[in-house]
Design goal:
Number of strands: 10
Distance between the termini: 25 Å
Radius of gyration: 17 Å
Shape: globular
Number of helices: 10
Strand order of the largest sheet: 1-2-5-6-7-8-9-10
Order of helices and strands: EHEEEHEHEHHEHEHEHEHH
Oligomer: single chain
CATH topology: TIM Barrel
Largest sheet: 8 strands, parallel, barrel
Length: 276
């Protein structure tokens, strides 16, 4: 068995849909705060930014203009050093039509899409199939979010039936759930990999202080990793992280230890492009 020495993509999710300044003083909310955080994380080795934006009250937003302003601020800070991925997360506020409308209006470089939100049942498959095909035809990189081995099976069934294009599309495996006190287990990755029956670039995100152990496991097994304050505010020893960049730095050290170079934004874009 050969050792995987391919480039590692470190994505950072610096804020998410729910946390605020009361959770951590360094959690970025405004466009300029996010841009400053993005630059610090790029300096530590991140090659991808998972972007959430907020409305004037600090709530989760899918407003295209707010996204544009924030993306411009990040580009001004980091240039092409980070691949910027926008979220379509529902967060209990949005339904599939609004999520799809954001992507059609914004036409971002990369977008995360939750199967359970956009294809919740058979009745939603026709609209989802048209949307997913349009995303790929438009040159947008989709990353499909999956929460269990069972969802990997469903994703592959949708792919086989043509609801999802039959391409090697990026996947995000979520180890755990968004709940207070959640701590993920690296062994939770195994059911995802056991169910994955086609070649596709995959990434892991996790919760709590075990985020780092989950990230290290994914990196060692040839996957990519997403870390950040969206899911975790703690360093690997359980102490509070000073910044998102601290969490990226921990993964950079793992990558160096196992011999995987880090992918910058241009490399991440090339590695995640949909392919046959």
């Amino acid at each position: 068995m050969s050792i995987d020495t391919s480039p590692l993509i470190i994505a950072v999710a610096p804020n998410g849909a729910y946390k605020g300044a009361a959770d951590h003083a360094a959690l970025p909310i405004s466009a300029q705060q996010i841009a400053h955080t993005a630059a610090a994380c790029a300096n530590e080795g991140a090659g991808m930014l998972h972007l959430h934006v907020r409305d004037a009250q600090g709530g989760h937003s899918l407003d295209a203009d707010t996204y544009r302003r924030t993306i411009d601020a990040v580009h001004n800070a980091v240039g092409d050093r980070l691949l910027i991925q926008v979220t379509t997360e529902a967060a209990g506020k949005f339904q599939a039509p609004a999520q799809m409308a954001l992507v059609r209006e914004l036409q971002p470089d990369c977008v995360s899409l939750a199967i359970r939100e956009l294809v919740p049942d058979a009745a939603s498959e026709s609209a989802a199939a048209e949307f997913f095909a349009w995303v790929c035809d438009a040159g947008i990189i989709p990353q499909f979010i999956l929460y269990s081995g069972e969802e990997v099976r469903r994703y592959q069934a949708l792919r086989e039936r043509g609801v999802i294009p039959a391409l090697a599309l990026p996947l995000l495996f979520v180890l755990g759930r968004y709940s207070r006190g959640q701590t993920s287990d690296p062994r939770a990755l195994l059911p995802f990999l056991n169910e994955l029956s086609h070649d596709a670039p995959w990434m892991v995100c996790a919760f709590g202080a075990a985020e780092h152990r989950c990230a290290a496991t994914a990196a060692a097994l040839g996957g990519h990793v997403r870390v950040g304050f969206e899911n975790n505010l703690l360093l690997k020893d359980g102490s509070p992280a000073g910044s998102n960049a601290d969490l990226v730095m921990q993964v950079r050290e793992v990558a160096a230890a196992i011999g995987r170079p880090l992918a910058d934004g241009s490399m991440a874009r090339a590695m995640l492009q949909p392919r046959i």
